[in-house]
Amino acid sequence: MSATGRNKLLIISRDTLLEAEPRAHSEQVFRKLASLNRTGHHLLLTAAEPDHWVPTRGNVDDALNSQAKLQQRIHETGGELEGVYYVPRSLFTQDRNREGALKDILQRYAATPRQAILVSSSVPFLKAAARLGIATHEIIAAGENESNLLKELKNI
Q1: Rg (CA), the chain
Q2: How many Å separate Cα 45 from the centre of its chain?
Q3: Fewer CB within 10 Å, N side or C side of the chain?
Q4: Tell me, what CATH number does 19's domain have?
Q5: Domain presence at residue 152
């Protein structure tokens, strides 16, 4: 898949979408994602790589189950999820290499920074995207209230 021409690569933090999933406006969020798909946006989720990639009944299973759940919701509303990119930790610092992950995503999708959009509540991830020239939309975690995710998706 190439994100060339009019097509855009829409990168959303998986946890941002998971937080919206049980909210009252979740159906509208997933319908908006499907609408963005139909207008040429390719949807990719990002998530922190689990600490251990071992077949257990814990961390990895939860990560894969949440991915399947989101993929099903997106599909049910007529959208298509390209996949989930798990952001690894740096071997030496154990920090998330967000900028390296974004560069890798752009390379894998043959996209330029101008063809990509990042939607996230992670300030370090948003800063890394901005340094690369990727458009950003900050999501404010809303606690018990609804987040601004739907509003930000409508602004894309």
Answers
A1: 15
A2: 3
A3: N
A4: 3.40.50.1000
A5: no
Among 13-27, 69-83, 101-115, which stretch is predicted with the lowest mean pLDDT?
13-27
Q: Is 57 exposed, middle or buried, given 0-12, 13-18 or 19+ CB atoms closer than 10 A?
A: exposed
Query: Residue 134 is part of which domain span?
Result: 8-138
- What pTM value is reported for the model? 0.84
By the 10 Å C-beta count (0-12 exposed, 13-18 middle, 19+ buried), 53 is classed as exposed
Between CA 53 and CA 59 the distance in angstroms is 8
Sequential DSSP letters for 19-84: HHTTSTTHHHHHHHHHHHHHTTEEEEEEEEPPS--S-SSSHHHHHHHHHHHHHHHHHHTT--EEEE
Residue 150: what residue type?
L
Q: Determine the Cα–Cα distance for residues 69 and 111; give it in Å rounded to an integer.
A: 27
Inter-residue contact 88 to 101 (CB < 8 Å): yes
Q: What is the mean pLDDT of residues 22-26?
A: 76
- 62 domain-assigned: yes
C-beta separation of 54 from 95 below 8 A: no
> Is residue 148, in this structure, part of any structural domain at all?
no
In a domain, 65, yes or no: yes
| pLDDT for position 38 | 92
